Amino acid sequence: MTRKKILGSHVKRLLSGVSDHGRRHLTEVETDLIQTNLLLEEAIDKLSRNFMAIHETVSAQQAAINLLLAGDTPSAQQKEQLGALSAQVGEYVNAAVTSMQFQDMTSQLINRTLKRVTGLREFLGTLGAHGAEMVPESDNDEIVELLGKVSMALAIQSLELRSVLRKAVSQKHLESGDIELF
Amino acid sequence: MAKTILAVDDSSSLRQMVAFSLKAAGYQVVEAVDGQDGLEKAKQQTVDLVLTDQNMPRMDGLQLIKHLRELQSYQKVPILMLTTESSDEMKAKGRAAGANGWLVKPFDPQRLIEVVKKVIG
Predict the structure, then answer these.
(1) Which one of A44, A126, A165, B41 is at 20 to 30 Å from A150 when CA atoms are compared?
(2) What is the pLDDT of residue A32?
């Protein structure tokens, strides 16, 4: 292979490597942000609904208590309703507790995105630092050697970045998860 | 006397939710902020059940289980994982480390209490 072709192939490999690396990580960032948004939207929706339901139920309970305090004798139906209201509050609180766990999941997704952004910044920093070493007077051999070094450094950084980015949150909804006893 | 549960999680909101749910069911709850803290608290007192997250700074859930199982007093104490992780691979690792069960977040308080009752009464 001629020197010109060797240089061309190094440049091509470097550019396509940077492009693939960037695109892959940005796609993951996009996916994590969409997932975070879904979880947040669902959490806010469920928390709002449950808090309003708790408020309505407690108001209904208070109305029943007011009747009792006024000396009214509650009917069998009213007694049954009062008992049911307490159970309902418990159900709404449980649903709110499940939804409140959005923070744990979204913070893991956000931390993963932050690590990825930091990794990408370091990746671009490496590219810039090696680029600065390249002087206009460099001959083809020097440029090929430098491009080889850059590609190697970027490949190592890419592997290191991937090793700290394992996805631990796959949930897209706030439904309670599976339980398995061994 | 109320049974004691050690709840290990680096998320303060999650610890709050676990403690709120278990205390409402009559259990005593000791909280730990990560595996290392959990191990230290487990050594300071005997607990009836350990409920631990997996991904935590300093020491993760699997490491905590391995350390606990090395202690004579924790060889038979039930340990449940409560984590966002749901892969079969991670569950197998948990089982191999000595976990007695795997609960995927988010948890439903009622179901959590049912499982805890089933395991320690």
Answers:
(1) A165
(2) 93
Question: Can you give the pTM of this predicted structure?
Answer: 0.83
User: What is the SS3 assignment for B88?
Assistant: helix
Split into its structural domains, chain A has a count of: 1
- Statement: residue A10 has pLDDT above 80: no
Half-sphere exposure of B113 (CA within 13 A, CB side): 14
Closest-approach residue (CA) in chain A for B84: A169
Beta strands in chain B (DSSP E): 4-8, 28-32, 49-52, 79-83, 101-104
Q: Is residue A179 part of a domain?
A: no
Q: Which residues of B touch A181 (CB under 8 A)?
A: 100-101, 115, 118-119
Instruction: Determine the distance in angstroms separating the CA of A49 from the nearest CA of chain B, rounded to an integer.
Output: 17
pLDDT at A141 over 90: no
When comparing pLDDT for B88 and A166, which is higher?
Answer: B88
- Look at residue A176 and tell me if it is in a domain: no
- Write out the CATH class of domain B4-120: alpha beta
Write down the ipTM of this complex.
0.84
